[in-house]
Design goal:
about 290 residues; alpha/beta
């Protein structure tokens, strides 16, 4: 198996760092692009990428601007927005895949926030299938009590206060991920989460037409022990894809003979023969 370091230049000139996993030649293969969660580096997905490459896929992992290996010390983190990760970064990954790898099919696995941003990319119409892993709307009322009231406090008061005046937000210190996040990303995320329609609210002024026009298969995974992505919040996000062929798999850890899965468990090694193979089976069905 080969792992190739890649540079991806976005439409606004920002250079992202990524990796291409493959066996033999990546050109002309089915491609899987992994969109990371909010504060999660691409290295977290390397084990899944390796496993998928050994099953005949070319896999692209990458870090969003301001995160992990795509961090640029000369860029003020307050100028980086969450929408940029979809509109520029993910779009550049799609464009590189289309122009340089000539794929048979393009699949996307969006983890948490990585699944929310897909339709912001101009080239999202080229996608043939999407797996959403614990990917919800962030609006606090979709969450269960008493956690919803903590989220309301978090979005309206705590997060804006902790983020004020910073270039980078120390997400790892409050359990949001393993590293720091550009403060502009956090600021916009909190704004979206205070809106009932999340990023889809008219007040945010985003180009959203691609979400409603995607008429492709989407499979969403939700786990009942994941307080960050309850079924109601995931359904709220899925409702923004009215033309898609949607399957929502709501699983209890006991269904998988496990004690817990949570928000991050899907990508851990022990899921290889439990859930990862299901993904490849689902992709194979979408090709028929």
């Amino acid at each position: 198996m080969q792992i190739e370091e890649i540079d991806v230049v976005c439409g606004d000139g920002y250079v992202l760092k990524g990796r291409l996993f493959y066996v033999n030649h990546p050109e002309g293969q089915n491609i899987i692009i992994i969109n990371p969660a909010l504060a999660v580096p691409q290295s977290y997905y390397a084990r899944f990428a390796t496993y998928a490459a050994n099953h005949g896929y070319a896999i692209i992992t990458y870090d969003y601007r301001g995160i992990g290996e795509s961090y640029d010390a000369e860029i003020d983190g307050s100028s980086i927005l969450l929408e940029h990760w979809g509109r520029f970064d993910f779009n550049a990954i799609l464009q590189k895949s289309l122009t340089e790898l000539d794929p048979k099919q393009i699949y996307v696995i969006g983890h948490s926030a990585g699944g929310q941003l897909i339709g912001l990319a101009e080239h999202s119409s080229a996608i043939d299938g999407i797996i959403l892993v614990t990917s919800p709307s962030g609006y606090w009322r979709y969450y269960k009590s008493p956690f919803r009231y903590f989220l309301a406090f978090f979005w309206h008061i705590m997060l804006p206060a902790l983020n004020r005046g910073k270039s980078y937000f120390p997400a790892h210190k409050i359990g949001l991920g393993s590293g720091d996040v550009p403060s502009g990303v956090i600021r916009q995320w909190a704004e979206w989460c205070r809106s009932k329609d999340y990023l889809f609210a008219e007040e945010h002024g985003l180009e959203l037409s691609r979400y409603s026009s995607l008429s492709i298969p989407i499979c969403a995974y939700t786990f009942t022990d994941d307080s960050f992505a309850p079924p109601s919040a995931v359904d709220a996000l899925l409702s923004q894809y009215p033309a898609a062929k949607i399957e929502h798999r709501i699983l209890q850890p006991s269904d998988l003979r496990m004690k817990s899965v949570g928000h991050f468990g899907f990508f851990r090694d022990h899921m290889q023969n439990v859930l990862w193979d299901q993904v490849f089976e689902w992709f194979a069905v979408t090709e028929d």
